[in-house]
Structure formats: structure tokens, C-alpha cells
Amino acid sequence: MSQQKVINVARGLEKAELVIKNANVVNVLSEEIHNADIAIQDGIIVGIGENYSGYKEIDINGAYVTPSFIDGHVHLESSMVLPKEFAKTVLPAGTTTAIIDPHEISNVFGLHGISFMHEAVKNLPLDVYTMLPSCVPATPFETSGFDLNSYDLSLLIDKPWVLGIAEMMNFPGVLNLDKNVMAKLELAKSKDKRIDGHAPFLSNKDLCAYIASGVKSDHECTTPKEAIEKLRLGMYIMIREGTAAKDLDALIPVLKDCNTRKCLFVTDDRHPSDLKEHINGMVRRAVEAGVNPIKAVQCASLNTAEYFGLKNLGAVAPGYKADLLILPDLKSFKPDFVLKDGKIIVENGKLISEMEESETPSMRGSVNVKWIEKDDFRIEAKSDLVKTIEVIPRQLVTKSITSKIKIENGNAVSNIETDTLKVCVIERHRATGNIGKGFIKGFGLKSGAIASTVAHDSHNMIVVGTNDYDMYVAAVELVKSQGGKVVINNGEVISKLPLPIAGLMSDKEFNYVLEKCAELNNASHKIGCILEDPFMTLAFMSLPVIPELKITDKGLFDTKIFNFTDIFESKLISN
User: Fold this and answer.
1) Domain boundaries, the chain
2) What digits encode the pLDDT tens for the residues 435-492?
3) CB distance 43 to 6 below 8 Å
4) What is the DSSP string of 205-230?
5) What is the DSSP pairing of strand 16-27 with strand 54-59?
6) If 427 and its partner were Cys, which of 110, 335, 480, 553 is the partner (CB 3.0–4.6 Å)?
7) CATH topology for 67-314?
8) Torsions phi, psi of 536, nearest 5?
């Protein structure tokens, strides 16, 4: 596009390629709503004003135009579908840009996983930028597929699609000047790229040190007090509304009472059932709670673009990309039209843009386990009292309690009456033969077993069951399908979702995965599970950085002592 063309169209001397007539522009720059025509040429907004004419004109009769929405932090793998299917789902909701952290697939495939995601997002009508995972593996207490150091990240840091280093979960490593951690921070700073944070409850001087190291954002705030302290110290606050972790309601006071220009909306981890309403749902709910609509739209667009240095995104103004939403009102935030690069890709809420046909990048199988036998699930009994992971519904944290199990033939087995069930984590990357064993309370299974290869953060295979045989069958089924989720009862598969791509994603269409997820939950409930979403809960039982008690392929892990602990107790400990 020539400068002459831009200037002439902007001045009204030539017709624009497209003009949106009679728009109520939600101006996130001046924080006002005003009526104007919007002139678009070659995918760029070139004019805002009166009486523009175009070769194509759309009179929207006073409907609202906002910048399209940006998801500032998402692990796309959590959707369990390929990026193409993810795009098909979120574009009608108005999300046209996503900043991904391929942390999950990197724990399985390292740099190959990052490259896979980049190749898979090419040629989509969705702009996808990458933040390089900073903590692979997340901890030394589990076995992951790869270990990414600063040299590995340096091979990709200069790529134009890479915006920086993703959530630095290892904030103790920052505070204690860990050499590997500091090398990653220095890499990003030397390239003038962003460093995202992850520092729940970090405060006072330690928080100052964390921020001074170069970390500029945080998505772990769960209270206004925490968010305000971090805002005061210059951090951008990523307000998260995922499937498991939901912080929007708690942080509404921040959006109503504070300067919101350093607040942005992110989804972090969302399962298929929560994808069709995306960032637009956060905007809607914020407005319903009393947040100024313009400020809510800023959090979904301009603030995010400015934080990541995307200078041509996030506003309706000359020189910005024509990534726009046309909304009938500022209440539902369901776009009638979505424009990407000046082209209408969603009309009347339906995706009309044709996705380019492309082959899924090649990827080897990821379930590499030592040969599994039924006896591998056996636990020799030392007592009938065991240290037990107690699930707290709808939370990632757990309690450490003591429960009574049954002893059969000298072996510790599940006690269905007390809901104390066996849980095992099977290492699936290097065929080490590691199997962490323990007990868990809160699933409520009366028979059978459930298993998954989606198990944060190293994504080994996790199995919960009432008996060793069903647990064995569940594990074997996941080896056969090279990953996925499964429900077993009496040795039979009653529901299964194969996830052959890294053991995390399906190669099927979105609706198939959505239906299978619902089927898995229903099947789990039929064998007694009392949790609303048992596989969501199961996925976080192997994450040893979240209190109090978790399990990895290396054993039962107690975060209070930050070390492994024995399964068996000598006496009952009261709650």
C-alpha cells in the first residue's frame, strides 16, 4: 500500500476499499463513544470521520465498533484441539489475536513442541504470538520430556513471532539468583522483550526484587489487595478467567476503583466447554458488574497490545489494523460482525472465512512407557493408615489428611467406604519405569478407574481407581491411543477421548472433542464420581508447586516440607 494511496483515501480524495458507515466508535484512546465513518484500505484503518465513501460500504446504523479482542496469556493446548479448531471457535466471539505460552507441549517435546505450535498457527485468520516457556520442567520433582535452558530459548528469541519469555513460575529462583533462571531473564532483557510473571502471594520487598529483575506482569492475583500492590509497583495485572482458576469476580473492585490501563484479560487454561464465549464473556461480565464499558474493552484490546508492544493493534484509529468488532449493544458483547485485516470473517455471529487447508505438522508418539504390568500398581502395606491427598472441589489446592485403607494379601488397596482411592502417576516420556503411588480422597468412585495424560505440568500419565486391574487397563488403553482420557469399569472401556498429539490434543474437530469431554464426565459420574469435572481436578493432582499434598512419578510430595514424604502414617491425625 503506497503512502500516496493512504493519504488520498484518508483525505477523502479517493474511495476507500471499505467504509463502515454510521458507527458508534468505542474509542479506547480518548475514552469516549462518538459517531463516525471508518475508512479501511488494504487491511488498515486510514480514516475516522464524516462522509467517507468506499467501493464497498456497510451502514451499521449506529451499532458499536470496538477493536477486536486479544487473549494476553493462553496455553492453547488446554483446549485439547489443534489451533485451527481453536481459531474456528474463538473468532466468532471476537478474539482475533492470542499470545500463547506453549508450556504444556514443551514439557513433552521441548523446542519441537514450540515449533509445532508455530507451524500449526500459520495461515489462520487469527494472529498468534508466542512467549517462550521459562520453566520446562516446572520443578525437579517430576520427570518431563525435555529441559529447556537459556541456550535453547536463545535459538528462538529473535523470531518476529516471539514476544518474550513466558510466566516465570520459579520466583524463588529469581530471588535466590539461580544461574539458570537469571540467564533466561538476561536473554529476554538483552533483546528488549517482555518477561511475564507468575507469583501468587509474593509481596513486599521480595515482590520488589522480582519486578526489578525484569518481570512485568502477573496473572495469579486472587484478591484486590494483591492486585493493587502489584499495580502500585508497576506490574501489568492479567485478570484470569480460565476453566479451573477464575479470578474476574474477585478483582472487579480493581476494575471499578483503580486505574485500569495496566489491567488486561486472559484465559490461561480453558477446556472446550468454556471456549465459545471467550474474552468477550469477560468484558460482558465486567460490564454487568458495573465496570465502565470502555475500560472493559480497553482491558480486552489496547492494554494488552501496549503491554506486548503490538503498536498497530488494539484501537480504532488511523494506522491501526482493521481488526474490528461490530456489536449491536454494549451489554451482550456478542459481535454481529468480526473484521480481520479489513475483511469480514464473521457475519451474524457465524464464521464465513474459509480456513486454508493445511496438513498438521508431523509429530512422533509421546507415550513412551516401560512395559506395564498389573503388579506395577501394587503397594505393600506398612499400616492401614495413609497420608492422603484430599481434594477440595473447584480448587487446585489440596489438603494432607490421614485416612484408613484396606489391606488385602499384605497389599494396601482402595477403601471405597471411606472414599480413599489409589492414585498413581506413570512416567511416560523416557520409559524410566517410575510410578509414583499414593491415595486420594474426594473422587467418590464406587467402581472402575479414570486416567489421563493431561497432568500438569510434566504431563505424565495419572490414574485414579478402585482396583488395580481397572487402573492397569486404563493405563494400557492410553498407551494404545498414544495419550488421552479414559474411563474404565470392570475391565471395559466405557468412555475414551484419544489425544494423540503430545498426549494433550486431539486431531478431531472441536465439536467431537466437546461431546467426548461431556461423555467422559457422564461416564465418571456413572461409576460414582462426585466431582463436577473429574478430569480437570485430576490434571492438577500431579502439580507439586500447589499446596498441600500432590503426587508425581517420583512419589508423594508434601509442599509444607517441600520434599517427598512416605505414604504410611503410624497413627491417625485428626483434622
Assistant:
1) 67-314, 374-564
2) 999 999 999 999 999 999 999 999 999 999 999 999 999 999 999 999 999 999 999 9
3) no
4) HHHHHHHHTT--EES---SHHHHHHH
5) parallel
6) 553
7) TIM Barrel (3.20.20)
8) -65, -45
